[in-house]
Design brief:
Number of domains of chain A: 1
Largest interface: A-B, 29 and 29 residues
Structural class of chain A: alpha+beta
CATH superfamily of chain A: HIT-like
CATH class of chain A: Alpha Beta
Largest sheet of chain A: 5 strands, antiparallel
Radius of gyration of chain A: 14 Å
Helix content of chain A: 25-40%
Number of helices of chain A: 3
Distance between the termini of chain A: 15 Å
CATH topology of chain A: HIT family, subunit A
Low-confidence stretches of chain A: 1-5
Order of helices and strands of chain A: HEEEHEEH
Strand content of chain A: 15-25%
Shape of chain A: globular
Number of strands of chain A: 5
Strand order of the largest sheet of chain A: 1-2-3-5-4
CATH architecture of chain A: 2-Layer Sandwich
Mean pLDDT of chain A: 95
Oligomer: homodimer
Chain lengths: 143, 143
C-alpha cells in the first residue's frame, strides 16, 4: 500500500509496549491491548499523517471498512452491548483508531476506557491464539 | 435525507441539555458542547441506528465528510494541536460523533475529555454568534 508513505512507518514504541501486535487487517496493523479486562483493539494505518482528515481518501475508506469489520466481529465474538470507536492520539502521535467492545457489566461501564480502566488482566496465550484464529476466520486479519 | 429513517429522530434530551444546537451540517445536527473550556462539537446523523458500522454507506460517507470539514475548521479556527474524534454512546444511545479540538495548554491535556474535563466555562452569546458565522463561512453549517 503506497498511499501517504513509501513504506509503512514502524509502530510507535508505546503501542508495542501496550499491545499485542496480531498482524494486519487490509494493510492496517491490528493490535490488541494487553489489558484483557475488555476487548480493546487498535488499527494503525500505514501513514505518517496524524489526523483522520489528512488520510488520502482510499486509505481512509480502507481504514473505515477495516474498523467496521472489526467492530462487527468484536460485538459478536465478545457479545458486546456497544462499540466505542475513537482516534485520540494526544499521547501517541502515530495515527491509531481504537475499536473497543463494551458491555454493561464490564469493569468501567459506562465510562470510556481512556484513563478510567483501572482493572487489569492478561490474555493467556491460548486465548490470544483463539482470538487470532477467530479474527482470521472473520476476515479481520490478513494472511 | 432518507437513509436509515423516514424522518430524523428528535435529539436525545441529554444532548440538548449538554449542548448548544447550532443547526445542521450536510443534514447532520451540529452541536457545540456548552462547556466552553475547549472546542467540543458533536455531529448527530439522522438515523436510528446506534453504531457507525450500521449506518447506510451514503450516510456514513456524508458523516465522515462533515466530520472532516469540521475537524479542519476546529483545528484552524481554535489553533488546535490535535483533533479527537470519537463515537462512544455508552450513556446517550443516539449515535453521535464527537469532534474535539485539543491544545497542549488546555485544561485536561493530554487526557481525553470524557470524564476528565472538570474545568467549566460558558460561551458568551457573542462568541456563539461568531463561531456560528465562522462555521457557516467554512461550509460546516447548512443554510
Amino acid at each position: 500500500m503506497s498511499q501517504g508513505t513509501d513504506s509503512p512507518p514502524a509502530l510507535h514504541p508505546q503501542l508495542v509496549a501496550d499491545c499485542h501486535v496480531l498482524g494486519a487487517s487490509a494493510g492496517h496493523a491490528l493490535l490488541l491491548h494487553r489489558n484483557a479486562t475488555l476487548p480493546w483493539f487498535l488499527l494503525v494505518p500505514p501513514t505518517t499523517v496524524t489526523e483522520l482528515f489528512e488520510l488520502p481518501a482510499p486509505l481512509r475508506a480502507s481504514l473505515d471498512a477495516a474498523a467496521d469489520r472489526l467492530a462487527v466481529f468484536v460485538k459478536q465474538h465478545f457479545r458486546c452491548d456497544k462499540i466505542n470507536v475513537a482516534a485520540i492520539g494526544n499521547i501517541v502521535p502515530q495515527l491509531h483508531l481504537h475499536v473497543v467492545g463494551r458491555r454493561r457489566d464490564d469493569a468501567c461501564w459506562p465510562r470510556p476506557v481512556w484513563g478510567h480502566l483501572t482493572a487489569l488482566a492478561d490474555y493467556p496465550p491460548a486465548t490470544l491464539d483463539s482470538v487470532t484464529r477467530a479474527l482470521r476466520a472473520a476476515g479481520c486479519l490478513d494472511g
